[in-house]
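Justification of resources, computational component.

The compute hours requested in this renewal are based largely on the per-chain cost of generating structure records like the one below. Each record pairs the submitted sequence with a full structure-token output. That output is archived, and it is also reused by downstream analysis tasks.
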Amino acid sequence: MIKKSKAVITLGFIVILNCTFVCCQEKTNQDIVKVSGRKIVLNNKNYQIKGVCYNPVPKGSNLRSFENLTQDLALMVEAGINTIRVYSPIDDIAVLDQIAASNIKVIMGFGYNQNGYFDILSGSFINYINTYKNHKAILFWELGNEYNYHPEWFENDINNWYNALNAAADLIHKNDANHPVATAHGELPSFEVISLNPNIDIWGLNVYRWNNPESIFNQWENLSNKPMYLSEAGADSYMTISKDQYTKGVNEKAQADATKNILKSIFENDKICAGVALFSFNDELWKAGNNNQYDVGGGGWAPNSSGVPYDGTPNEEYWGIVDIDRNKKEVFYSIKEKFNKK
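The structure output for this chain reads:
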């Protein structure tokens, strides 16, 4: 009996030790993303977003597809991109696994009313979060995209959105302690807007201030102590007019020059700005006219975008750092140089 008891005790000790080891392993493998002051911190290391907005709609379609994911990820890795920002959730474990295997993180976006597809209005967004909150691809959750420009979506009272936003962020915190919650706001929010949303951890700002967003960093520093990043910034590769040294028509040099200056300003202000998600990865032919061809102007006009360099006009189908066929534009090399050097 004594020998048996010792054996049982020894076996129990081994089981406990093994469980402890496995639990520690699982804990170690779980990414922890926090905010510390103005910084985003991934597993106790400062994380700078060197990102791109990613909405891969193929030629001839108006629906997102990940059929080109392998090629796209290879291009992103080459360019030094460490983060992609999406406007609606990716409900495909294979896609998320492939992104994580490329050492790229996702800013996972949720819309307010997406006909019940993991949206805020239906409350189904929290089901997605509880399903994928332990996935290594996730950097943080992001609610809405420049909804402040659209009070008409909220019974002409934008406070209805802010109330829903703050409540959704609170629910996420109660379900996921390991990832912050952000929102993407059109331009600089007011102090009142920030005060209405205490549960937002990170503020994304969609900013188009010509080729130098520097002024917004001082403004943010005086407004809030929370982290911010530019959730959209950049330039398109079409000039609607000839201006300065940039000729009318397709003009990749204008896009490359503007983006290089924008990134320079962001990196010089990295004590305030946690990074950028450049708009966008690939050209989007669904934005205007015929989905099978490039269309100049029309469709998809973005509010507050007259600051788009260098013609003051957002030509919505020409924003990619690669074209619709994944040919690299001049801007790709500007980004590659900046992201890999920083």
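The mean pLDDT is 91. The two ends are 67 Å apart (CA to CA).
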